Structure formats: C-alpha cells, structure tokens
Request: fold
Amino acid sequence: MGWWGVGLAIGLPWLTGTLWISGGRRGDGVPGGGAVAMGYGYVLGLLVVTLLLRAQAALGWRLDATAPLVIMALVALAGGWRIWRQVTGHTPHPGPLLPRGRGASRWQWLLFALLLGWLGWRFVILAQEIWLRPLYPWDAWTTWAVRPRVWSEWRELIPFVAPQLWLADPTGSAYTIEAWAYPWTVPLLALWPTLALGAWNETAANLPWLGAALALGFGFYGQARWWGASPLIALIFTWLLLSLPLLDTHIALAGYADFWLATVFGLSVIAFWQWARTGDRRQGVLAVLLALACPLLKLEGAVWLMLFIPALLTVGLRGWPLRILAAAVAILGVGWWAVGGVAFTLPGWGAFSLTPTLIQVPSLGTFNLGYRGSWDPVLNNFFVLSNWHLFWYLALIGVGLVVVRWPVERWQHAQLVLMVASLAALFVLFFMTDAQRWAEYYTSINRVFFEFIPAFLFWVLTVLVPPRSTGRAGQRLPVALDHGGSDRPDPELLLQRGHPG
Reply:
C-alpha cells in the first residue's frame, strides 16, 4: 500500500480509539475530554492492533495489514454511529481540545500560543529525526527490532527460543536473541506499519513512537484540564513533560520499549487517580485497560502492575477493615522474615523463591538481595546531569508541600500509597539487587525511572493545583466552558438538570 498505507495504519486505529472513548463519555462537558479521548484513543487503538496480529498468527493466516484495517474501519464506523446517536439525542460533546473564551488575559493567551508553537516545532524536529535516522544501535538492534524485521520478511510470527533450543533445532525454523523471552507487543507495534508499507522499513517501524509521544501529550494535557487546571497551567505541565531531554531522546532514537511503558503506565496511573477521586467509571475502565497492558510491553511491567494493589485497597477499604488488613500484612511480613522466606514450584511456570536474601521469578530472573547501592550516581543523574532538567527539584517542592499539608482525603491517601510503593520498588531494585550496577554505570537507572516520570509529574500537578469540585456520587458538576476553564457552575445547566440555582 506504500506510505499512504502507513498513514492509514497509524491514523485509523487512532481514530477508532478516539471515537470509542469519546462515545463512552455521556457528556458532562468536562474540559479536556477531547484531548483525553485522542491521547488514550491512540494508545488503546494500537494495542488492539497488536492483538489482531496475534489473532492472525493463531489462526495460521499470513500476516497482512488488510484484515486488521478492515476490522478497525468497521469498529470506527460503529463508534462514529454511536456518537451520532448521542448528538441527535442532544448529548453534550466532550470538552474542547483547545481553550476558548474571554476569561484569560492577553499575556496568558500569548504564552499559551508560544508554548503550543514551541511544542509543535519540537515535534517537527523529532519527526525529521525519525524520518532521516536509521534504526539506532544497542537495545533497539539487539532486543526490540530483530523480531519485527524477521516477521516482516516471513509474514508470520516466527518463534524466538532459548539459545539451547535454537542449537538443538534441526529444522532451522526458529530464531534466537538474548532477550528471546521478552514480550511481543513492542515488536508488533514496530511490525504493524511495515506490513501496511509492504516491506521492512526502519522509518515506518519507528513512526508509532512519534504517535505515542503526541498521544502522551494529548492525554496528559486533557487529564490536567479534567483535574481542574486552567488551559495555561495544563499546557505548562505538558511542556515540562515533553521537553525532558531523556523523553525527547527516546522519541528521536525510536525503537526502545521504555517510552511505550512510560506512556501506558503513566496514563493508567493518571486515570486511576482521577477515578479514585471522582468515582468516574470511565476513568476506571481506562486505568484498568492500560494497567493490564503493562506486562505485555516489558517484563517489569508485571511488577509495576502490582503497584496498583495497595493503592486500590486504600480506595476500597476504610476504618477497621483497612487497619485489620494492614496489621495482617505486617504480621505476615514478620512471619515471612522469621521463617526465612518461601520457595515453591508451579507446574508450567517454574520455581519461585522469595527470601530475605533472594528473589527468583520465572521470566523476570533471579535477584540476590542485600543493601549495596550508592547514592552518588542517583544524585548526579537527578540533580547534576542534564537528562531531567529541573524535574527532580520540582518533585522535591511537591514532597515538601505534601509534608506541610498532610493529605486527609481518601484519594490523596491512594495517591501517596502508589507514589511510596513505586519509590520503594525502585529503591529495592537499585539499592538491594545487582541492578545497582545500572546506577553505578549510569545506564538503565534513567530509563527505568523514566517509566514513572509522567505519573510523578502529574502527581506534582495535583499537589499544586486544587481539583475541580464534584457533585454527588462522584459526578462532576457542569462547568461553563466560556470562562477560560473556570470552575464556576453554569446556572443554566444546573437548572436544566434540576439543581437549585
């Protein structure tokens, strides 16, 4: 299909996801709804495409872009018809992508336009990098791009097996790489546009990374507006995110899985926090779908998925049940330590060990535990070198404000629990396991922390920006969209819905 097919392969799933998320919003007119639909719609649309490719392979069909495109087109038509039904029923549209109104001063609109133009020009430069630069070496060569290249040539999902099995295979029908057990989703994302192009092409394989960057920007901005930030504040925080040097590097040198995991995990955490505060089921569905996709992207995604569990319990339990659960966990922890941990084998999975000195999980690997880390590489990477600009200084300000204004709401507790659980997991990884070498050698420490940065930055925003008020049962009150994002309820809408004026 050529390059028109590549555009269709990226644009059609994006349109499909956007339409269905927009159609799922039964119109409370919250600002940022359109941007949320575009951001989350791209990610979910592309993830669904990878499932369709897996289905093709499972059915024994030759890999081809035509069938998935036809399915996505039909689903998009169904989503469009659903929105048309809502429009004819006079259901309000989602909030606008861009602010409109007379409430902001002229300098605010000028700054908004300058930041938007800066981001637009930055994406033009990044697009040129992806278009002109061949696939960059290291992990992109050795880990993530080998499988899509093979699959693109053979038009089938050729198995990648352990080196021992590859050596013992007399047919030559299998391949091997060092990361042979890594998840398939990121290679499938790279494979997808090359199927539409008709041949392997490194530029086409890397274009989904540029779309993911745009989706992250739309999703972050929309969620910031949904939270209650003004258009300018929401764009400033989006600019802070998209201007991070390490993030831009992962876009320009596309082909790594870290950017996808950062986008999916970050947008999932943000939706989870929105759901925890408002009880909005739409946000809850988005959080669940993206959280479940984390293990499909990288092996550590399974661990990041488990970080939601304590925060979810904080939301669902209160009072004595929560205290009893916390006491039970503490007692089990002390007992686990006293008996020296546990070890068991699951048929079909392998041997598991969780002891004070060893963690062994099939597929994830074996980690010897014991404090051995050094703070110097961490402090240099975060506060001296230029990978993060001033992000970690801003994060320290957020921590200070939380200490001064200790959270009292249950959703604030859920935020704090998820933040502490994430930092605890990273501390164990870099200070209690052999992964401390990644910090000492200044290699993966930034890439792993990068997977949490979109969520961490949104947490800083929630500390600095008061949330938008909600009505009963977690439903948002309608807001007037013609006052630059003002939180004041619109009297006409209130009367239409039966609320007292």
